[in-house]
Amino acid sequence: MRPLNDILIFTDLDGTLLDHETYSYKAAQGAITVLRERNAHIIPVTSKTRAEVMILRASLELNTPFVVENGAAVFIPKSQFEFNHDSLLDCDEFWCKAFGLPREQHQDLMSKLSRELQDCCMTFGMLGNKQIAEVTGLSLDHAALANQREYSDPILWQGSDVQKSQLRKEVEGLGYRIQEGGRFLHITNGYDKGKALVWLKQQYICNNANTPFRAIALGDSDNDIDMLEAADQAIVIKNPNKPTLMLPSDINEIRSASAGPKGWAESLSSFLDLDLGEPSL
Fold first, then answer.
1. Which of the residues 4, 27, 101, 217 could staple to 231 if both were Cys, CB 3.0 to 4.6 A apart?
2. Could you give the dihedral angle defined by the CA atoms of residues 29, 34, 38 and 42, in that order, rounded to the nearest 10 degrees?
3. pLDDT in tens, 244-269
4. CA distance readout (Å), 70 to 84, 221, 264, 267
């Protein structure tokens, strides 16, 4: 079988590669192994923090770049890419392209909202590690990792849909926008997962001029739409807890029959003709 070194797999995590309830990727393990063996590039694109992704990345045995906090920053291994960009930050073994604003500026933004809406917003900074663990089902240690935000401060929404519409108006009036993820709202300064995909794909092209890269994107939530639309091939993972994602008619899309990592593995296996062998009993 031919290598897949020209395939860039930009994948959401929660509800897509990871089970929405258990955060397990077990159902996708066989596909992940075959993709690694065939040199495909599996690139996590997530609302999670760098600290969280570093642990998952090690567990999955990935050495690829990754996108954190809904497209707020891209981390690229120095060992794989050569850069001469003044805009890149030097972050240990990674180069970092930051699209988002520092977390402190997000906290300042909250104070500019009307009092009614402030009372409906519980950010990670307000919740603290213990309440983050209660809301997400994470262990206290993992909740602490989730709270190590660098470019965002997710919001646990506690208001009505009418108030949420008002929140969008106020946030947009301040020059920002709202992204809605699987569990939380996110205020951005214009960045999104799609912009991160486009930028990172271009870096791959610049560093490997003779390789015709193709970008596949997999996601299940509203905050994945920009990424799905920016890819050469969109794979919408079934989400039993959310309305069906609607993409423009000109987007090449596949829709999984199963949710979470099972749908992830089935869709990629079919599209890329992966030989996963017989499933274990």
1. 217
2. -20
3. 899 999 999 999 999 999 999 999 99
4. 25, 11, 19, 23
**pLDDT tens-digit series, residues 113-138:** 999 999 999 999 999 999 999 998 88
> Does the active-site annotation cover 90?
no
Contacts (Cβ under 8 Å, ≥6 apart) of 145? 49, 51, 52, 55
Catalytically annotated residue among 6, 12, 161, 226 = 12
Backbone angle region of 13, left / alpha / beta, with phi > 0 → left and psi within -120 to 50 → alpha: alpha
Non-local (6+) Cβ contacts of 22 within 8 A are none
Q: Element (H or E) spanning 180, and its range?
A: strand 177-180
Q: Enter the pTM of the model.
A: 0.89
- Which domains are assigned to the chain? 7-99+192-272 (3.40.50.1000), 103-188 (3.30.980.20)
